[in-house]
Design a protein that fits this description.
2 domains, 6-stranded mixed β-sheet, 4-stranded antiparallel β-sheet
Length: about 325
């Protein structure tokens, strides 16, 4: 299907030579090398619908970039299969390249010694984009990303934020239905990050592009993605919407209460733990797997104690994801 991504039991392994210590070990490695297998991606399956932005999350080394490299046609999988906009990317790389755009945060597809505008012109000719369409798209991109103030500057002289904004525009100049973004905002300041987020929201909501995003920025995930695929040690840990994941793993919360009497003996209700107490200031949290929800805990505290002030702190998305790793474990599937 145009604009969709389909991944079925995708795996990728690498063979490496084991390095033995010392001169004798190095000599043995040269004469009789010992080979080891590293499973970078193991049996991953997921779909991304047309017009959907999916966040592919996981710690460093989890297999995110390897997965994207297989979907962009850079790597061939060891087993399994994938289709991007109806094309098997590693079998028909040229056709796949016309269907996708890609931005890797630490690398550029622009020509280092040329002004940005000339790089855009070269990409226009490579993808055979008509002049009128090219001009219209550049105007659209410029309205959000503010490119024209520096697109006569050589790429080597751009700041990181300017370069990534130009890379985003370059990746979409040929109007691809599918876009891969591998940590595109790494190292950016907050102002430029928000520009990039606005641009991506526009591309998904108004243009109907399919976007697969990897990032370590949970604020970015909350503001852009409705669904998350979490991988660890090369395996799929969970796949679900943010709401589903929050409901299942967002049990981390705190209730902060100010007691009317600082000398009140604090005996927490069942399922609720006393985290700390400083005079009249008391902080409660969940106690065990059967802990109540934050709103149930709030009601229990108010009914048990006389309080003059109360506040709740729910888990942020980073806490939720951490809990998901702990509870689901590597290799578990589903939200």
């Amino acid at each position: 299907m145009i604009g969709s991504i389909e991944v079925r039991s995708l795996s990728r392994s690498f063979h490496t030579t084991v390095r033995r210590p010392g001169f004798t070990g190095a000599l043995r490695s040269l004469v009789n090398p010992e080979r080891a297998v590293k499973h970078a991606v193991s049996d991953i399956s997921f779909d991304v619908a047309p017009g959907e932005l999916l966040a592919l999350l996981g710690p460093n080394g989890a297999g995110k970039s390897t997965t994207i490299k297989m979907l962009t046609g850079i790597l061939t999988p060891t087993s399994g299969e994938a289709r991007v906009a109806g094309v098997v990317p590693y079998e028909d790389r040229e056709r796949n390249a016309r269907n996708i755009g890609a931005v890797f945060g630490q690398r550029t597809q622009l020509w280092w010694d040329l002004p940005v505008r000339e790089s855009f012109a070269i990409l226009r000719d490579i993808y055979e984009v008509p002049m009128a369409e090219h001009a219209t798209r550049l105007k659209e991109f410029d309205d959000i990303l503010e490119l024209s103030s520096f697109w006569d500057t050589r790429v080597r002289h751009l700041s990181l934020g300017q370069r990534v904004r130009c890379d985003l525009a370059a990746a979409l100049l040929h109007d691809p239905p599918v876009v891969f973004l591998d940590e595109p905002t790494i190292g950016m300041d907050v102002v430029v990050k928000e520009q990039v987020r606005e641009f991506l929201r526009h591309q998904v909501e108004q243009r109907g592009r399919t976007v697969l995003l990897t990032t370590h920025d949970m604020t970015e995930v909350e503001r852009l993605a409705e669904r998350v695929v979490l991988v660890n040690h090369g395996r799929l840990v969970l796949d679900g919407t943010l709401d589903e994941i929050r409901r299942k793993y967002g049990s981390t919360w705190q209730v902060r209460a100010t007691l009317a009497d600082a000398h009140t003996e604090v005996v927490p209700p069942p399922g609720i733990a006393l985290l700390r107490q400083e005079g009249p200031q008391v902080v409660f949290g969940p106690d065990g797997p059967d802990a109540p929800t934050v709103h149930q805990a709030l009601k229990a505290v108010i009914e048990r104690y006389e309080v003059t002030g109360i506040a709740i702190d729910e888990a942020d998305l980073e806490d939720v994801m951490r809990a998901a790793y702990v509870h689901a474990g590597p290799g578990a599937k589903g939200a």
